[in-house]
Amino acid sequence: MKSTIKFVATVCILLPTFLTTATGQQGITRTPISTSDFPAGFQTVMGVANIPSGICFERHMHPGMENAYILEGEVVLKIAGQPDRALKAGDGFQIPAGAPHVGCTTAGAAKVLTVHVIEKGKPLTSPAP
């Protein structure tokens, strides 16, 4: 019972972050799937991002590593200090903690499964300079 209450409380805290991100980024929606307090001092947050066709999401960064898998569509991923990467359904990728990045859909809409391992108590995402 305690773990259920903790999960619901965590989702209630994180959901506004996901929704704020969605409305600030040209119709992108982020749906949280699960959150766990692991490893020590961090939270692992899984979600699905739906990115409309023909847009680039805003340059941003995370206070921890992002692991992701392209479920549908194609995206060009631009991570600061790295060459651009063309990704398609079935491709996975990682973004280092604190690395500014942006992505653009190239062939219709895209759906991306994301797993963030972020420092506990920090927002999931923040604008990048």
Structure, described:
- The protein is of the alpha+beta class.
- The protein has one domain: Jelly Rolls (Sandwich).
- It is 18% helix and 47% strand.
- The protein is built from 1 helix and 10 strands.
- β5 and β6 form a beta hairpin.
- The relative contact order is 0.24.
Q: What's the β-strand tally?
A: 10
| Spatial shape | globular
Number of helices in the DSSP assignment:
1
Number of domains: 1
CATH architecture: Sandwich
Q: Please trace the helix and strand order, writing H or E for each element.
A: HEEEEEEEEEE
**Which consecutive residue ranges, at least 5 long each, have pLDDT under 50?**
4-24
Q: Strand order across the biggest sheet? A: 1-2-9-4-7
CATH topology: Jelly Rolls
Please give the largest β-sheet.
5 strands, antiparallel
Under CATH at level 1, the class stands as: Mainly Beta
Kindly report the name of the CATH homologous superfamily: Jelly Rolls
| Helicity, as a percent range | 10-25%
Which structural class best describes the helix and strand composition?
alpha+beta
N-to-C terminal Cα separation, in Å? 42 Å
Radius of gyration: 14 Å
Strand content: over 45%
Please tell me the overall pLDDT: 85
